[in-house]
Amino acid sequence: MAEHKIERDDGFVTDSNGKQYVAPIEEWQESERLAIPVAKSPVLDIGCGAGRVGQYLIVHGLDWVGIDVSPGAIEACRRRGLDSVHLMSADEIRLRRRDFRTVIMFGNNFGVVGGKDKVAKMLKQLYKVTTRDAIILAGSRDPRATDEEAHLKYHQWNQSRGRPAGLVRLRMHYKGLTGQWFELLLSSPEEMSEVAERAGWHLTKTFGERKYYVGLLEK
């Protein structure tokens, strides 16, 4: 039985061993491996999890700060020697620093706060804590880039309720513990561009395939 599960509100469950949260760069998604070399220090990591991105960047000499809403994630980072972490939600960023040149949102974290309005609000906050030449490396997936019937039906169900196709409602299960439901927005590059423009960011490039890509956003 898998120790880590992701449950969608239609009953669809994905099992995993959780190793993706601590994976070395060799095991990252191709789009993330292609994108990470353009990161400029200092870096703000949104939804840093157990710090896989932080460990890589620090080894390569970059100044890294991570935030995550999960106390367990913060604890995991500190156990792995990553101290520049803060317990904080991405929809209410409270940092004194205003000098970040890169914001990283790997693992679908472009949509980690939920719907389009909330994502646009988050991006506006990030505009204020970053430099003029700052970039965002935003991971997401085009919800339509699938041929799995369960996903296609879910997208249709969303649209029948007046919701974006890629606005999914999830909760995590780990070692018998169950987390709270939360919403995650999955966006095509076109949708990412539309939301980013509302906050003063511009999608200038994508890395990888639409099934999971990283968008390069610039001011």
Structural overview:
The strands form 2 sheets. A 7-stranded mixed beta sheet has the order 5-4-3-6-7-12-11, with helices on both faces. 26% of the residues lie in helices and 31% in strands. A hairpin with a 2-residue loop joins strand 11 and strand 12. The chain has a single domain, classed as Rossmann fold (3-Layer(aba) Sandwich), CATH 3.40.50.150. The protein has 6 helices and 12 strands. The protein has 219 residues and is α/β, with parallel strands linked by helices. It starts with a strand and ends with a strand. The longest helix is centred in the middle third of the chain and has 13 residues.
What secondary-structure arrangement, pairings included, does this model have?
Elements lengths: L3 E5 L4 E4 L13 H6 L7 E4 L5 H8 L4 E5 L2 H9 L5 E3 L12 E6 L10 H13 L1 E11 L8 H12 L6 E8 L2 E2 L3 E4 L3 H9 L4 E8 L2 E7 L1
Parallel strand pairs: 3-4, 3-6, 4-5, 6-7
Antiparallel strand pairs: 1-2, 1-8, 7-12, 8-9, 8-10, 11-12
Strand residue percentage: 25-35%
Relevant CATH superfamily: Vaccinia Virus protein VP39
Kindly report the CATH topology.
Rossmann fold
Helical content stands at 25-40%
Q: Numbering strands along the chain, what is their spatial order in the largest sheet?
A: 5-4-3-6-7-12-11
Just name the CATH architecture: 3-Layer(aba) Sandwich
Query: Major β-sheet, in short?
Result: 7 strands, mixed
Number of helices: 6
Number of domains: 1
The helix-strand sequence is EEHEHEHEEHEHEEEHEE
CATH class: Alpha Beta
Low-confidence stretches: none
Form type:
globular
- Tell me the distance between the termini: 46 Å
Number of strands: 12
